Amino acid sequence: MQDLMKHADRSDHSAGVATGTDAASVTKAATTDYLVFTQQTQWQDLPTSVQHMVRTCVLDLLGVAASGTQTELSRIIREHALEQFSSQSPRRARLLFDGRHVGAVGAALANGMTIDSVDAHDGYKPSKGHAGCSLLSGVLSLYDYHDQSASLQEFLLSIVIGYEIACRAGVALHSSVPDYHTSGAWGAVAVATIGSRILGLNAAQTREAAGIAEYHGPRSQMMRVIDHPTMLKDGSGWGAMAGVSAALLARDGFTGSPALTLEDIGVQNVWQDLGTRWLIEEQYFKPVPVCRWAQPAIVACRDLQIQNGFKASDIKRLTIGSFHESVRLEARAPQTTEEAQYSLPYPVAAMLVHGRLGVPEVNQPLLSNNEALTLSRAIELEEIDAYNALFPEKRISHVVIELHDGRVLESGPVEATGDPDKPLPAGTLEQKFMDYTSPITGDERALRIKELLLNGDITTVKLSDLAELIYPAA
């Protein structure tokens, strides 16, 4: 891959470099690099560790998708897609763990929002968001629409390329604009770029697709939905939809280049290691289905409870010290699963009360648990400047728990588990997949999905073999 990036004929991929006011800020070298990487990378170019990682990422995302079908958010968006994005064309796409057909852009929207409805999918700290949610929904929709005969290997390769584009585009966006945008903003660019490969577009068309997606992608305000949690979530479904639409529009001759997050000279440091450093290996995985910013405090409380054997009713006072974004997760008496997932005090309280924190503990029917709500309202939040200075590369919290018997328990600074340098115990993600998927599909089908993804021979397995398992209704 290094040789590919080094020796590519840059003149072959520079057609259509921006003209007008932005022309001077677009570099020919940068344009070539992401186009060569997107169009020419092959499975054998990937390190073995990357080949293994993408299987895990897809497995984890599919488990979250299966669980997400049980949310009200997913029900509404799937019905919306069926009503507003239905298509009479024989080239359509299907809804995950549902099986009904809609247009490709509608499937990308609904599947992305279904995954996003349960905040348990992977993420990349420097981009302050999640690549996999938009990617899986967009890529699956395009393959279902365009090429159902694709190999599992080509599908997994597309996902890897997408992670590498998405994570860098997210860092580039946040380093070049003042607002904090949701993951759909930069996920759209990656979906459009890899979608161009799936559709067989040339380099010039790929540039147009990336530019269309960047312009139409949902630059929605992340901190607004943190302060006021609703079904909007992280914009990932909308980003997937914008990306799929952009690739299809570019195929038909629509123009929109350049994508400045890919080509502007001011962000080229972000792209210098494309094809040599694999950011898919730097994703974190979530052991519990709430915002990552709440998880250090959850880990700290869980560890103190295990070590000291107290019950939630034994707590006299609980203080959480954390970074600014984390203490903005203030919902104390959530009425919806969205409010529970974008809360710091409630999931901490629920974990201490139940001794666990899974999808049932943050789902709407259980949000009336009086003991968890009482503790949630009493938790004190404190913003720590030292932790602010380390964000987003590190998300740190500490907890201080005073018990009625006079003991004071302190965690010290804690990071969440699941980071690349603090991985989850072996087998955790496989069990998480089964816990999330089996109630929806039954044990047998869940096991078949897991076995195919983790151990299937991708030289012989087709994407259609996976499709048979992930599209039939729950």
SSE topology:
Layout: H1 2-7, H2 28-40, H3 48-68, H4 72-84, E1 93-94, E2 101-102, H5 104-116, H6 132-146, H7 152-176, H8 183-199, H9 203-216, H10 222-227, H11 236-251, H12 260-263, H13 268-271, H14 295-308, E3 315-322, H15 324-327, H16 337-341, H17 345-354, H18 370-378, E4 380-383, H19 385-390, E5 396-403, E6 408-410, E7 414-415, H20 428-441, H21 443-455, H22 463-470
Parallel strand pairs: 3-4
Antiparallel strand pairs: 1-2, 3-5, 5-6, 5-7
Helix pairs in contact: 3-5, 3-7, 3-20, 3-21, 4-5, 5-6, 5-11, 6-7, 6-8, 6-11, 7-8, 8-9, 8-11, 9-11, 14-17, 17-18, 20-21
Task: Describe this structure as you would to a colleague.
This protein is of the alpha+beta class. The protein folds into 2 domains: 2-282, 2-methylcitrate dehydratase PrpD, CATH 1.10.4100; 292-415, 2-Layer Sandwich (60s Ribosomal Protein L30, Chain: A). It has 22 helices and 7 strands. The chain has helices at residues 2-7, 28-40, 48-68, 72-84, 104-116, 132-146, 152-176, 183-199, 203-216, 222-227, 236-251, 260-263, 268-271, 295-308, 324-327, 337-341, 345-354, 370-378, 385-390, 428-441, 443-455, 463-470; strands spanning 93-94, 101-102, 315-322, 380-383, 396-403, 408-410, 414-415. The strands form 2 sheets. Strands 3, 4, 5, 6 and 7 form a 5-stranded mixed beta sheet that branches. A hairpin with a 6-residue loop joins β1 (93-94) and β2 (101-102). α3 (48-68) runs antiparallel to α21 (443-455), α8 (183-199) runs parallel beside α11 and α17 packs across α18. The longest helix has 25 residues, at 152-176. The chain is globular, with a radius of gyration of 22 Å. 53% of the residues are buried.
